[in-house]
Design brief:
The protein is of the alpha+beta class. The chain has helices spanning about 5-10, 15-25, 30-35, 40-55, 75-105, 120-130, 150-165, 180-185, 230-245, and strands at about 55-60, 65-70, 115-120, 140-145, 170-175, 190-195, 205, 210-215, 220-225.
């Protein structure tokens, strides 16, 4: 018997053991169930009660002694159908309550948040997640951008800028060089580029309410910081650099 299947249907290991024992023994007393199934006397009535409530066991009383029997295995299908019906009802209830839960989640959003994303996929998630939180009123600020990053990173950023352009969001970028990546972005809409050589070992972006600190080694990473004070600080830092940068 595939006991794992019964467990997946919602029966506990104790219920499965007792049910299979009842099938094997037929009409029997708790004493014989305990002996055959190896269930403690303190647990047997609790388990039998649960099986009865699930429609998988029953009992009759003879001369003040209870004799228990297993319901037909076909009853397991009835039990499964009942569970399925209950799940559908709970799904309907959840759909009704979902707007309240989403509203509660919104009120719990933190103004302060720090998350480290690692690896290419993590890097991608971080930059697109930050972009998704911006609107046309925002101007994205980037400093320390270099052309000599990994090729797939540069390609990813160009896709990111295409999405930015669709959203009509402006950006100001301070590059460390005027190589290939610079030349490609220079042609894009809503982008204002300048250059200062060798300003920072890591790129720093101010995207909406977040500051992203990006590294581009063998394992690229993004430290995403949601903090109003840090956003203001890096914005001021960027503006000072922008004033002394070159076209």
């Amino acid at each position: 018997m595939n006991e794992k299947l019964l467990e997946d249907l919602g029966l506990t290991k104790g219920e499965i053991t007792v049910y299979l024992t009842l099938l094997k023994l037929g009409e029997t007393t708790t004493g014989k169930i305990i002996e055959e199934a190896g269930i403690s006397s303190g647990k047997i009535y609790e388990i039998l009660d649960k099986l009865i409530k699930k429609g998988l066991a029953g009992y009759i009383t003879k001369e003040k002694t209870k004799y228990f029997t297993a319901a037909s295995p076909k009853r397991i299908l009835n039990y499964l159908n009942k569970k399925e019906h209950e799940l559908k009802e709970k799904e309907k209830q959840l759909i009704k309550e979902l707007p309240k839960l989403l509203a509660l989640e919104k009120t719990a959003k933190k103004d302060y948040e720090t998350t480290l994303f690692q690896g290419f996929k993590g890097y991608e998630t971080a930059i697109f997640e930050a972009l998704s939180e911006t609107n046309q009123k925002d101007t994205i600020l980037s400093v320390g951008v270099m052309s000599n990053k990994q090729g797939n990173i540069n390609v990813l950023w160009r896709k990111w800028h295409q999405e930015r352009i669709k959203r009509k969001i402006k950006c100001k970028i301070i590059f460390s060089d005027k190589e290939e990546h610079y030349k490609k972005l220079k042609k894009m809409k809503y982008a204002n580029l300048r250059v200062i050589s060798g300003i920072t070992p890591a790129a720093v972006d101010v995207i909406g309410k977040r500051v992203l600190i990006l590294t581009h080694g063998e394992k690229p990473s993004v430290l995403s910081i949601k903090n109003p004070e840090i956003v203001e600080s890096f914005t001021n830092f960027f503006n000072n650099l922008w004033c002394i940068s070159k076209f």
